Amino acid sequence: RRPPCRHPVAPDLATGVEDAAGVTTSADLTLYSGGPVTQSEVVQASGLELLGAGPFVLDDPGNDVDVLAASPDAGGVSFRDTDDLRIGAVGTLLGIDTPGNLTLRAQRLAVQAPIVAGGSAVLNTTEEIGLANNITADRIDLNAGTTTRVTAASILTADALSLGSSVTGTQPLTLLTRTLGKAVNIGGATD
Length: 191
Known about the structure:
Helix content is 3%, strand content 49%. It is globular and about 45 Å long. The strands form four sheets. Strands 1, 2, 3, 5, 7, 12, 15, 18 and 21 form a nine-stranded parallel β-sheet that branches. The chain has a seven-stranded parallel β-sheet with strand order 4-6-11-14-17-20-23, with no helix packed on it. The chain is built from one helix and 23 strands.
């Protein structure tokens, strides 16, 4: 059953068709899809909530969303933002929980709510990644253009971890393996 749409949404985005039209709103936007979602025009919103089947591939470099939260039923999430992006609360969701891979690209990224990916979690920025919450995935790649700053106690849980920049901050960062008895491979391309 499809949840009610609480915000202005183009009908083709709400039903989840390929090559969806763009949407611009100053409010939060909920995209509920019965299948894969791609885009041909930008999505601009205060917050973006991704629900439904997925996968969601929203990689237009003009996308401008302040806060992202996602929980697809299947598939993964790929999202690109033109400037600052925060992982947080939007609508009914807090953070990102996807059974597939997660790829996020932004100028600056703040992880302020949990991220869980069934596959890999790749976070790419041209400037800083701010960690204020936990990330769990098979493989985690943190590729910050300048630094990864730990702003609150955070836990990275993965069997392979790649840190593409220095890690700074005054808060603790804990590294855990996802598979019991396996060593965390920091900076390696293999498990």
